[in-house]
Amino acid sequence: MKNIFFLFLGLFICLNTQAQFNERPILNLQNEDEAPLNWGYFLGFNSFDFKFDYVDVPRDGDHLVSTSTGFNVGLISELRLNQFFDLRFEPGLFYTQRTIGFRGFTTENEAIRDVKSTYINFPLLLKASTKRIGNWKPYIVGGLSYSLNLGSNEDSLDDNSSGTFRMTKNNYNWEVGFGIDFYTEYFKFSPSIRGVFAINNELVPDNDPDSPWTGNLSGIRTRGVFVNFTFE
């Protein structure tokens, strides 16, 4: 399914780029970027993974992660700094699921942990754009974000011995990506792709320091990819 989304994104960009390379295109929304404040919303898809940090050198395949496609939805507020730079605030809701497989267990109930996460994300980003070319404009974006994990289980007294995988509720990330603004007759449409990288350790270790699940883990950090479609 994720490959289909990327294929759709690539086809859309190619078709629109070809359409805008006329010698004298009719310019849409010529004053769209002149307002000091712009508003919009985004919809999209995500794929989250984990990066594991170990106390001792791990064996191959100690932890295997199976990812799935989640969804994103949120709002956009943009402050124009000058012709090329904008400051963006993009609060959003992200739902994702990851399945972790632990080596050394004989039953599925012990070896498999489904990690369902619902993040409320608050990124503050700097958007750097090129000069507008006809009805399109490439850009790169990057910055920091705070995310609240509503499914963290951080306050749970149960741990992996009871089937509960625990993560921190409050998390901090850095984000970087690129996209293209397309100026249609009625609105600005922007497909983009972005990577998110957790800064803090998100692991809440089991109560037993020698736990077969978390005893050899010094930390886990989220790694993710977003494909967003914004409308302004």
UniProtKB/TrEMBL annotation:
<dbReference type="Pfam" id="PF13568">
    <property type="entry name" value="OMP_b-brl_2"/>
</dbReference>
<dbReference type="InterPro" id="IPR025665">
    <property type="entry name" value="Beta-barrel_OMP_2"/>
</dbReference>
<protein>
    <submittedName>
        <fullName>Probable protein-translocating porin PorT</fullName>
    </submittedName>
</protein>
<feature type="domain" description="Outer membrane protein beta-barrel">
    <location>
        <begin position="18"/>
        <end position="202"/>
    </location>
</feature>
<feature type="signal peptide">
    <location>
        <begin position="1"/>
        <end position="19"/>
    </location>
</feature>
<dbReference type="InterPro" id="IPR011250">
    <property type="entry name" value="OMP/PagP_B-barrel"/>
</dbReference>
<keyword id="KW-0732">Signal</keyword>
